[in-house]
Design goal:
CATH superfamily of one domain: NAD(P)-binding Rossmann-like Domain
Radius of gyration: 19 Å
Strand content: 15-25%
Structural class: alpha/beta
Shape: globular
Bound molecules: nicotinamide-adenine-dinucleotide, UDP-4-deoxy-4-formamido-beta-L-arabinopyranose
CATH topology of one domain: Rossmann fold
Largest sheet: 7 strands, parallel
Number of helices: 11
Strand order of the largest sheet: 3-2-1-4-5-6-11
CATH architecture of one domain: 3-Layer(aba) Sandwich
Order of helices and strands: EHEHEHEHHEHEEHEEEHEEHEHH
Helix content: 40-55%
Number of strands: 13
Length: about 350
């Protein structure tokens, strides 16, 4: 039987590569388009090592509609698209708003235009918990208000969700926006993981790079937040659990289960952990001492945010399987493996 083909933009990136593996494991045929602007070609070989299959890969910028059209032309039997490709550095987005609006929105519009032209109706979008800003209640539910984003990055995700809702209302598109909380961890094999460029701004790569000696010391941003230990609380989710949510989302769309042309789902664990919890868990599980100090609060950080994932649990049938211990163990394993290659 022919496998169902799914276009995966940004499929060599951190979340995309793990999702490609899970799609293959579930019997789908992912087709990857990635311009390698934030990934490396060896990830494609490692996808093969992990899954036993080497997906069709196009090195192409999806902001270039002509090259993207040739990919759609060659793959007329696509049944869905998962759209990861985007720029994602919050700090950089404040310095280069035009770059972020262009990259994140032109790419989305190009994909949607071609999906319409080639009659591909199912779309899964990478959104972010950042759309909520500072929530008034916890855990965060999908019905909570979306406040004006502080960063240009967050603004592109809010605008993208709005675009999807309006386009889906015209009834040719079924779209799901998955609002990821804080993805960490790596593939159990140690062959796939996050590849941050330069100094990491996210906590987990900063922790692993400090542990391995690339960074001298981890600065914990703020110790006087209104939280039990004074450091910020987030909902960290293992990237493999997050990747699997995309398989559930595709199955949901392809089986025509949605009553709505557009819907949003939080993808988190429902548990909140502080920065100090992360440091302590990393040290305990990996038996590594981490050098850290306290610094000023970071601009734009919210004190606490964690998800209610009840909607995704009940409607998509998805739930997380991996623990915080798995997250810190797999992140560390990946860092060591990657540096020793
Ligand atoms: P990533 O940078 O590792 O992956 C994105 C991939 O897209 C990269 O491989 C990059 O080379 C590719 N890409 C970027 N622009 C492209 C373009 N114009 N054409 C073709 N390929 C392009 O990022 P990630 O962490 O895997 O994130 C994937 C998606 O999830 C993004 O949309 C991001 O905004 C969203 N997201 C990420 C997080 C997170 O913390 N990692 C949280 C919430 C949402
Ligand atoms: C986590 C916690 C920091 C680094 C960001 C984006 C969000 C989403 C996920 C894309 C915070 C603290 C961090 C460090 C620290 N990405 N920290 N020292 O800010 O929750 O979310 O990534 O959509 O949009 O904003 O994640 O990993 O940067 O920070 O103390 O060196 O770790 O203050 O409390 P964040 P993060």
């Amino acid at each position: 039987m022919n496998k169902i083909k799914i276009l995966v933009t940004g499929g060599l990136g951190y979340i995309g590569s793990h999702t490609v593996v899970e799609l293959i494991n579930s019997g789908f045929e992912p087709i990857i388009v990635d311009d390698l602007s934030n990934s490396e070609l060896f990830i494609l070989d490692n996808i093969y090592k992990v899954s036993g299959q080497k997906p069709k890969f196009y090195k192409s910028d999806i902001c270039d509609i002509n090259s993207l059209k040739s990919i759609f032309e060659e793959n007329k039997d696509l049944k869905a698209c998962i759209h990861f490709a985007a720029k994602k550095a919050v700090g950089e987005s404040m310095e280069k708003p035009l770059l972020y609006y262009r990259e994140n929105l032109v790419s989305l519009l190009n994909v949607l235009d071609l999906m319409k032209e080639y009659k591909i109706h199912n779309f899964v979008f990478s959104s972010s918990a950042t759309v909520y800003g500072e929530p008034e209640h916890l855990p965060v539910q999908e019905t909570f208000p979306i406040k004006k984003a502080l960063s240009s990055y967050g603004s592109t995700k809010q605008m993208a969700e709005d675009i999807l809702e309006k386009v889906a209302a015209t009834r040719w598109l079924n779209a799901l926006a998955l609002r990821y909380f804080n993805p960490v961890g790596a593939h159990l094999s140690g062959l796939l993981g996050e590849l941050p460029k330069g100094i990491p701004s996210n906590l987990m790569p900063f922790i692993t790079q400090t542990a391995i000696g690339i960074r001298e010391v981890l600065t914990i941003f703020g110790k006087d937040y209104n939280t039990p230990d004074g450091t910020c609380i987030r909902d960290y989710i293992h990237v493999v659990d997050l990747a699997k949510a995309h398989v559930y989302a595709c199955n949901f769309l392809l089986n025509g289960k949605g009553n709505l042309p557009y819907d949003v789902f939080n993808i988190g664990t429902g548990e909140g952990y502080s920065v100090l919890d992360m440091v302590e868990t990393f040290e305990r599980v990996n038996k590594v001492k981490l050098k850290y100090k306290f610094g000023e609060r970071r601009n734009g950080d919210v004190a606490s945010i964690y998800a209610s994932s009840q909607k995704a649990n009940e409607i998509l049938g998805w739930k997380t399987e991996l623990s915080l211990d798995d997250m810190v163990k797999d992140s560390w394993n990946w860092e060591k493996n990657y540096r020793n290659q």
